[in-house]
From TrEMBL:
It comes from Vreelandella aquamarina. It is a multi-pass membrane protein. The lineage of its organism: Bacteria, Pseudomonadati, Pseudomonadota, Gammaproteobacteria, Oceanospirillales. The chain crosses the membrane at residues 22-42, 86-106, 132-155, 241-262. This is Phosphonate ABC transporter, permease protein PhnE. CDD domains: TM_PBP2 (cd06261). It comes from the Bacteria. It is found in: Cell membrane. Residues 80-263 form the ABC transmembrane type-1 domain. Its main location: membrane.
């Protein structure tokens, strides 16, 4: 195989073998074929007549949203307060459940492999279902309202917080744990003095980050009847009151900006 080397014998360039060259051609052929297949599937399931008209429809929709009906904002403070409560209480409930689940799921703190498998199943189950789907199921069971939204946010948060937290627990430095265990400390004391101090900054950061995400997710739960400002959004869309929809969008955007700022400040103060 032709190889170009530098003056000190270090290889700088070498020609591909015939086998490597053919494998590269086959990889490109497979990639292009996959792209064309995906494009064919997408194209067959797309009504292009609507896509061709999308620009005109979009500009028409924006023109109906302008100017926003700002006086409608006075009716949105209560739904927005409900949205913040859904996000905050749902996050708190999810964290309370995820905290012990993470310890049961981590290899270095779980009491038994079977318990770890059960804890991982809970985490995966929570992460595999979107909060909007949880909300749809809970509205069917509990009826429409804020409670369904809070529980939906909590169920979704368990998987997120639990996964990141148990990974943080597994990555702790073992020396403090071994030192405390060598003194004859109980399992609970080892957790309290050897594990918790190492994971608390990560736990605080994960919790604030999840609350920030939940603020955004809770704004749409009302679309399926789970309370919050999504109810007003759904009602305005159904009644074609687009100048009210633009006010709701502006309020959601401002709320998300404030939550981002609060989240960044808290993380900066803790970590």
């Amino acid at each position: 195989m032709p190889v170009s080397t530098s003056s000190n014998g270090v290889p700088q360039w070498q020609r591909r073998t015939t086998r490597a060259q053919w494998l590269q051609y086959l990889a490109w052929l497979a990639g292009v074929s996959l792209f064309l297949l995906c494009w064919k599937v997408i194209s067959d399931n797309t009504m292009w007549v609507f896509v061709e008209d999308a620009g005109r429809q979009g500009s028409d929709l924006i023109s109906r949203m302008m100017p926003p009906r700002w006086e409608y904002a006075s009716e949105l403070w209560k739904p927005m307060w409900d949205t913040l409560n859904i996000a905050t209480l749902g996050t708190a409930l999810g964290i309370m459940i995820a905290f012990p689940v993470a310890f049961l799921a981590a290899r270095n703190t779980t009491p038994h492999p079977l318990v770890r498998s059960l804890a991982l199943t809970i985490i995966v189950s929570s992460r595999s279902i979107n909060s909007l789907i949880w909300a749809m199921l809970l509205v069917t069971i509990l009826g429409p309202g804020v409670l369904a939204g809070i529980i939906a946010i909590a169920l979704r948060s368990i998987g997120f917080v639990g996964k990141l937290l148990y990974e943080a627990i597994e990555e702790i430095h073992p020396t403090p744990v071994e030192a405390i265990s060598a003194t004859g400390a109980s399992r609970l004391q080892v957790m309290n003095y050897g594990v918790l101090p190492q994971i608390m900054p990560a736990f605080a950061g994960i919790s604030v980050y999840r609350w920030d995400i939940n603020i955004r997710e809770s704004t749409v739960l009302g679309l399926v009847g789970a309370g919050g400002i999504g109810l007003q959004l759904n009602a305005s869309i159904n009644s074609l009151a687009w100048n009210q929809v633009s006010v709701i969008f502006a309020l959601i955007f401002a709320t998300v900006l404030v939550s981002e700022w609060v989240s960044a400040r808290v993380r900066h103060a803790i970590i």
